[in-house]
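Students often ask why we bother encoding 3D structure as a string. The short answer is that it lets us treat folding as translation between two languages. Here is a chain of 102 residues written in the first language.
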Amino acid sequence: MKHPKENKRAPHTHRSELVVPSYHRILVKHGLIEKTLSISDAYEVFLKVGADSEVQKLRREVAPGYKMKHVPALYLATAMALQGMTKQELEALKSRIEEKRV
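And here it is in the second language, the structure alphabet:
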């Protein structure tokens, strides 16, 4: 006979949220892409967002004098830069990114 605790399984986590990369979640959170955009397309958008001069300026302000050697640190700095932007700045960024996509 098994012990009663052996029959219990771990609570089910939402697998779909774990599979989505952090850059995809960052862009969706700030309204720069739709949640249904493919991961490869989202990465292209993330690269364009990171290359935007306004985002680069804000990223430098977020971490002055800190050299980002790891890609996750770059994601975090970009997310923090986007967090510091107003809705109008995010809309302007979205329009600049859409111009580059076309």
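Translate back mentally: The chain has a mean pLDDT of 81. Keep this in mind for the problem set.
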